[in-house]
Records
---
Amino acid sequence: MNVLWLQSGGCGGCTLSWIGSEIGPLVRTLADENIRLLWHPSLSQATGDEAVAIWDDCAQGRVPLDVLCLEGAVLRGPNGTGRFHVVAGTDTSMMEWVRRLAPRARHVVAVGTCATYGGVTSAGANVTDACGLQYDGTVPGGLLGVDFRSGSGLPVINIAGCPTHPDWITETLIALAREQLTAGDLDERGRPRFYADHLVHHGCRRNEYYEYKASAEQPGDQGCMMEHMGCKGTQAHADCNLRPWNGGGSCLTGGYPCIRCTEPGFEEPGHPFATTPKLAGIPVGLPSDMPKAWFVALAALAKSATPARVRENARADHPVRFYGKRRDPSKS
Amino acid sequence: MTRRVVGPFNRVEGDLEISLDVSDGYVTAAYVNAPMYRGFEQMLLDKVPADALVLVPRICGICSVAQSAAAARALASACGAEPPPNGRLAANLTQAAENAADHLTHFYLFFMPDFANAAYRDRPWYEAIANRFRAIHGTAAAEVLAGRAAFMRVMGLLAGKWPHTLSLQPGGSSRPLQASEKIRLFRTLREFREFLERVVYGDTLENIASLATCDELAAWAEAHADRADFARFVRIAADLRLHELGRNQTVMMSAGAYQQEAGMLFARGVWSGQEEPLDPATIKEDIRFSHYGGDARARSPEEGETLPQMGKEGAYSWCKAPRLGGRVAETGALARQVIARHPLARDLVSRDGGNVTARVVARLLELARLVPAMESWTQQLRPGEPYHIPPPPMPDSADTFGLIEAARGTLGHWMSIRRGRLRNYQIIAPTTWNFSPRDANGTPGAVEQALVGTPAHDTEGGIAPAVYHVVRSFDPCMVCTVH
């Protein structure tokens, strides 16, 4: 399976995340699954004219393009010219290159939240007029339009995440190489369901604190970060705590909140990222699939039932109270 | 004279285009173009200061921790936060992990594959080296990606994940490591040391760090030929005379790195053939040849503007032109090791100034120095004691900056806070220094100068690999540059 990987308005972090793959050295995994990188900006030998020749071969149909990956947002500005990113050595905008290549591709894959929905590149006043391949924030459309379908009949496959987990990319490409990814395997935002059917909350190691609404107040505290520190793990589609990062981490184990980076529009939450917006002391962003009144009632009940151990540990940066009877170490 | 445009330049971070004026086969002038604009300095305006910690790491996928650290430093200085010892150690470890991984990535994935260029097929070493370092398919790629991924578990432990952590805070680290995690961290570092000593150096890290002269390095490389990739590079570099390539007589600059109990591991300063202090107040950015409008005078970043303007007469890059007291400066591992007074780094630049060999050697020298320091910092962690101290409240108004060392050199964030919001935010990244365009005086940037005199063509009329060696020896990060 031939893969051409382009980068535009983004940080390159999805690639850097990807090469940290732990299911095997990336290059070996790809070779073993018959996935051939025609060109990748960080990994390939070919540079300059040789690289442009490869893109041209794909655009002209001389080389079959099985997968076009774009990492980074499409920069449509200034004034719709796309010239906020003119691809080196070609005097042609990346926007134009993507328009040439996407119709030739059997599959089109947007890697990361910039390429899927615009992401951080579209934050603030979005001066570069950044958008995703098939979304502009939460609005379907983007560069290629709502009706775009690649050669396979699929819409753009949106591997959202800022950055993406290495396995999300690898497993998507392997599924495509095996012809095992169907429209039914994508969720309503075009994301592969194998990771987007989960919530970041699933497998969170702070679960006991969540159950009792025993909350962290400062970075480093062990408690749940939903009440005060802006955590949106209960509302974010991803398996970050079921499929750990870098050998066992995640944002939540790292002591900082989930910012919902797999969702369109996460870059402009309408409040400071690490502070939970509240109305009358109650967090505004609660899980949407349970009645708010029940959530509040359960939270009040849980708070009154919180064991002192959980309450005190929530506001400490290491366990200070323990379950069960303990021998006093000073009396050994 | 002919004009050659080189790009897209892969195996660098981000997109890069270089125009070369060529006479009699040699580069007579170079123009470096960062061909993308992303707008972070505009995006950050009117946000609460703490939001910078979420947004700025996303400037760069390869040095996101460095971006975090610069913002955290600026915020800490604005509110008077003082991280506890564990917080300082955790920050050192996280930054060192990123810098070490970046040096390894640069050597194996970005730089060495150029020796598999067919232009070298007549060299006696070609077959073995191409087989080892060819991009993707060389034997080194899988071996090094595995070693690198194992090492990045340091980030899983210290920072939750990499890239784009939010663990570096003005008050310290949000990730308090407990006793068993400290052991796990130490074991991860020791496994990385084993990998480096076996695959990269074929020798102990301490022996590498104690190489003091170019002659000692050459003798070491002969003795370790075919045992380690570093020795392979040193021998190729001698064969191709890479010390004569990419020469640069500009000053070197380092903000100093890794605050320890007493002083910094790598000192702060400027090297101009002699030691000078670094005065951040002399940093100004010029936009004469950059796609920006507004005040044409060079401005201090405290009052810097970012007003994109396409079609400006003469402009050729989205990179601004920073100058240190009016001077072009080179920054990076070589500058850091020279200013840190490492004898080998000093010897490498004493004859030829900054050059391709010196830059690559300095990165691997620094890697060999960093890992033992990381082991030591890990042992100093005191589980149970705080990693984070709640900082004093952020003042409503402040002008502040954070200056740190990223893998590629000096990184500065300057922020103005008014009424609790960011009124101005200016970033000068390492590659902004190295890949600067000309300034109002017409003085070319560091890489533009280093490319002059480079052979431009190979025997078949393509771009000579020498051009790639010079450019990649600086390890450009264009995504940082075009923030």
---
Amino acid sequence: MNQFTFTAKQKTFLLSMMGVGLLSMVLTFFTDDALHTRFWSNYLHNATFFTGVAFTSLFVLTAFITAWSGWHVLVKRVWEAYALFLIPGLVLLSVLIIGLYGGFHHLYHWADAEVVAADPILKGKASFLNKGWYSIGTFVVVGAWIFFALKLRQLSIAEETMQDANFSVHKKIRVWSAVFLPIAGFSSAAIIWQWLMSIDSHWYSTMYAWYATASWFVSAMALTIITLAYLKSLGYLQIVSDHHLHDIGKFMFAFSIFWTYLWFSQYMLIWYANVGEETVYFQERLDNYPVLFYGNLILNFVAPFFILMRNDNKRKYGTLVFTAIIVLLGHWWDFFLMIKPGVYHTAQEVLAHSAAHADEAAHAAGHHASSFAAGFTLPGLLEIGTFIGFLGLFFFFVFSRLTKASLVSTGDPYYEESVHHRVWPF
Amino acid sequence: MRKYNKNVLYGLYDDDEQLLAAIHSAREAHLEIDNVYTPFPVHDLEEAMGLSESRLHMAGFVYGGIGALFGFLFMTWVFTRDWPIIFGGKPYWSVPAFIPITFELTVLFAAIGMVVSFYTVCGLWPGVENPTLDDRITDDKFCLAFDVTNADGGKVDALRSFLSDSGASEVNQKAI
């Protein structure tokens, strides 16, 4: 069975997941503060997280093609479908851009012209951190990613029927993939600075873009494992063996360690240099978000490191899917920690500022109110509901794309190699 | 010269496919294979011989754990008990600063420990000279060897005919 059918039952289930998400977002919107900070930060969190997963899937695919990899061919349709989620991703992000221009949200400190005018640091950064760059950057960068995703998808499907002795279609795929890689490297960094790092507008870190991309990468691998296990349980892709899964498990393991390496490098350099402008980022997180901060390391390093270290654990479906779920939630949690403290801080300042016009006393009160904040200090039920909604949307889109082509690309010149792919132990 | 005190009957094959087929039929006939020698790594050989998984990586994990503990506790002792110095205004017991060295010692202990274990298990040490059954097994011949030290004449003959029937171009016996 290589032709995926998207059953009515699956559609109902995924649509009800989206329903849960929508309900959570509506509830968040109406129980929120005056700026709807919780609603917008949840939206930003999930939109960037899933768009990033789509981007890294495209990156993985093109990197493998460029590296003359053969084993991934049986899995590539899943990644192609993931990469196409960039299209709804751009739609999701445009809502943020509309919100930015309409002044509906206060996620970004630098978007507030009044604040920037009074702040020499933000004034210095204004040539990059401004609404124009943010929206043009998003459209150009994600637009370019979409172009490559569509191009590779179209060529990959053309490869099924247009086979010739010169592998002319495959050669085109190879060229497009190689062209994408440097573009992906620079553009993802620039756009992560805009989307996420600029939330803490005064702060910057040169490790940040790599660090966030590593998070996306591990999440993409975790989602791939979950999707493959699900498809196999339905009887599809029987040709995908333990050996393929073992390799994806290795990628999840290796990039969990890579993520930790970047996390620690960023932390230790800032800790060691002890420059106030830089340490404020970690000070805030260690003082007010200790559960998130240490939980992040346990979920994303300790758990996958010790569970996936043994060779045969990367072949046991139960263990692998269990770890994939931990790591997926872990990186969602990591993004939560990247976004929420900065957003909360900005919102508190804006709220205190507007309150100050009415009452000077409220200003002082607003500044020192740093206790438990629902939806910020820890992810609450509404955050989990929103995540479920976005996950439903992601899978709904991915499954609808999977129906458009055979799950197995028999036209790929490396198809046979992939079928016979084996890694030790046999 | 190292002595195994073994009497070995071995067949030389011209092709790795022949060797693999011979190994399969030897295992089907419940003949106990002493060893297999090939000039290059042959795919599926471990599987065909039914070799069990190496436990070297478990030893590696233990060595790594010892290295991590040693590195971390040693630095803890040095910087809190033996010679406390303040570096850059940090506390004496500065865990983040210890992590890179702990990591390096983990890797060092695991790597050196595994190399030493591997060499010990294989009986390799400086100056060791291993008896070679036939020089051509380092060139173009694939060798399947049976231990016939305690075998009677009938058994040896049976093995000899098994080797030549399975396609060995040459069958020899040698004491090593």
